[in-house]
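Weekly puzzle thread! Below is a chain. First person to post its structure in token form gets bragging rights.
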Amino acid sequence: MWGSPAPETGMLLPVNGFYRASRGTFAQFGVPVSHPERVIDTVLAHATDERFFASERLDACNVLDVAHPLWLTRATGHRSAEVSAVARTLLHAALERWQDGAGVAFGPGDEPGLQGTEMWLAITWYLADLLGLADALGYRPRGVHRPEPADALS
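Winning reply:
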């Protein structure tokens, strides 16, 4: 990760920046992440920050910032039991947010809508895949949240 914890936001901005940068580069071209163990260490520590990960404070952006990097670095097996525990906790929280006939709200206080539903469905898939359960969902994310690279570097 690039950056240091800030008193007000901890590792929120560095983790979000890593998600955005890695999603648009490493993930898009199927390139392994540099120093994946450090990524996992940082993301797991960030996921314990109650300012953002208390159940009543979860929003799609913050959870995707954790789910995708953990999924992207999953092949290392580094701290796999802890990764699975975080995935299980966040998956349970994601599934509780579904509202029949409406979808999922982006975050606390929001109404269910397209953005929240699309992001939480992608999050659900990544977390379920970390737990070996994604096939049971019956869908795979498409578009910007697809797990497959857009292209390969030659």
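Puzzle host: Confirmed. Bonus trivia for everyone else. DSSP finds seven helices and two strands in the chain.
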